[in-house]
Amino acid sequence: MPGGDVVPASAASAPATTNGAARSERGTFRLADLHAGGLDPRGREVQDILWAVDEFKIYRTEAGISPFFSDDDKTAAQQKHIYLGLGADIAEFNHLIHILRPRLSLPGRTKRCANIIHYERELARCIAQALLGQPEQARASLANLSNRLSARIRNHARVVHLLINVILVAIAIAGALIFARSGYTSAFAFDVKEFSLAVMMGAVGALFSTTVSLQSMEVDPTVTQTMHWIYGAQRVLVGAMGALIIYFGFRSGVLTGLFQPPGDGLTVGPGRFDPYWLSFVCVLAGFSERLVPNLLNGHAEAMTARSRARADAPARGAGETDRAAES
Fold it and tell me: Does the keyword Transmembrane apply (predicted)?
């Protein structure tokens, strides 16, 4: 059962261990046998008792939060039924709390994160609220708790996403600088320095876009760290590729009418763009995810229209000739 072990107290047997929980005279595991430092009916160490009343206890093990029901079979059955009704909500909480847990287990680290303890105690309170006869209020409390946990994870994920973008952009800039200073001669006669500048500025534009939209960015709280790296790499790659496409468009003359370089735009050397102008255009291409796709779509539609016009021209000419002959 998600969120805990649904084990009726009257039926659960304690494991045979030297330092485990004590057995009662009847040979069954009783409510009084459950205590911090001992073992639960499944042989797991009880790390803490989060909630304890005469009718039940809620405790924590390494596996998570679990309830232990009443010694009275009838009461335990009722509590089990109520607890099962919270199953979906507890499963959602457990999934979120697993994401919030630190990924790295440092040597000698025994203390649990204070944030995790806070949310686990809140979960215990919600379960206790349900077992004490307020299941609807418990569901509402659990939903509120999950929403708070989701918001915290989203904020953390946004920061992680930004840091990943910063790292990837730094790598792109370092790689482009090394490439520009390598003395490499392109087999296609590309200007290596302008090529590298376009990549760098496109990546910078992508990073600026991510930074500006960070607070409003929609983040799935269940996304893994690997997916953050993939999304971050995708955004930086799109920015760099968009800048290169813009650069190739200007070099080919296709986009000459879109932006005009200052003066003749060739102030650095023969056939070279002004680096400040090129940097700005490439940052713009990296910043706007829709700029380059819209330009490509526009040019594709224009080329399609011209092709259709050329294809229809002979047919229109033949039609006009026929009408002239008939007249």
Answer: yes
